[in-house]
Design brief:
Blueprint (H helix, E strand, L loop, with lengths): L5 E4 L4 H10 L5 E4 L15 H16 L3 E10 L20 H13 L2 H4 L5 E10 L5 E12 L15 E3 L11 H7 L1 H7 L7
Parallel strand pairs: 1-2, 1-3
Antiparallel strand pairs: 3-4, 4-5, 5-6
This protein binds inosinic acid (IMP).
Inosinic acid binds next to strand 3.
Length: about 200
């Protein structure tokens, strides 16, 4: 199997692009979807895996390049798994993370009495690599944690300011980004596809 030397990172989300490129070995040449002026496909899959496949295959077919895409999101148990695969849509058309975070906290506040008893949540990530010959490979990873009652920290993106990973007392938003990227859902999914690069 020949190792991948250049790759299109199939996302228009800057935060994700930054974190996926950080995980990939330095010597791999990385391309952004913006370089090809591509907008994102409609994510109409029913799971993280289906959506990551939709993105990786779409961007690969548009560019004839090997593409790595992820679909990820936050599952809150008190909200019966919401926002889940709709995590980015909770931020509205402009993907405004402040709006998405407010929505989570507002919904959780409705169950105020239960918040302390059922405060478990997880980030999930599914990564798919799609090759121009139609071959694909998917892997997934997750990180368990709890939801902070208020936003804390300015690092990262998305729901990072309200997610406290188990074993730490800081949100991902307060944590050193390198530490986050060595324990999170994306890193765990990446470990399973690393073999295609190194
Ligand atoms: P999508 O995979 O492009 O549909 O978007 C996933 C959404 O989940 C992002 O827009 C974020 O809101 C959220 N998300 C995924 N991974 C992370 C993360 O590492 N930190 C914070 N939020 C995340």
């Amino acid at each position: 199997m020949s190792k991948i030397k250049k790759i299109l990172i199939g996302t228009n989300n800057k935060g994700k692009y930054r974190e996926i490129s950080y995980l990939l070995p330095k010597k791999i040449k990385k391309f952004e979807t913006g370089f090809f002026n591509l907008s994102s496909p409609e994510e109409n899959g029913k799971s993280f895996k289906e959506n990551s496949y939709i993105k990786a295959s779409y961007f690969s077919k548009k560019t004839n390049m090997i593409c790595l895409a992820d679909d990820s999101g936050l599952e809150v148990d008190l909200l019966e798994g919401e926002p889940g695969i709709y995590s980015s849509r909770w931020g509205g058309k402009k993907n405004n993370f402040n709006i998405a975070i407010k929505k989570v906290l507002k919904k959780m506040n409705k169950f105020k009495d239960n918040w302390d008893n059922i405060n478990s949540a997880r980030f999930i990530c599914c990564m798919t690599i799609f090759w121009p010959n139609g071959k694909s490979y998917s892997s997934s990873g997750s990180v368990e944690g709890t939801i902070s009652k208020s936003k804390k920290g300015k690092n990262g993106f998305g729901y990072d300011p309200i997610f406290i990973p188990n074993g730490y007392n800081k949100t991902f938003g307060e944590m050193n980004p390198k530490l986050k990227m060595s324990i999170d859902h994306r890193f765990k999914a990446y470990l399973k596809i690393k073999k295609f690069f190194i």
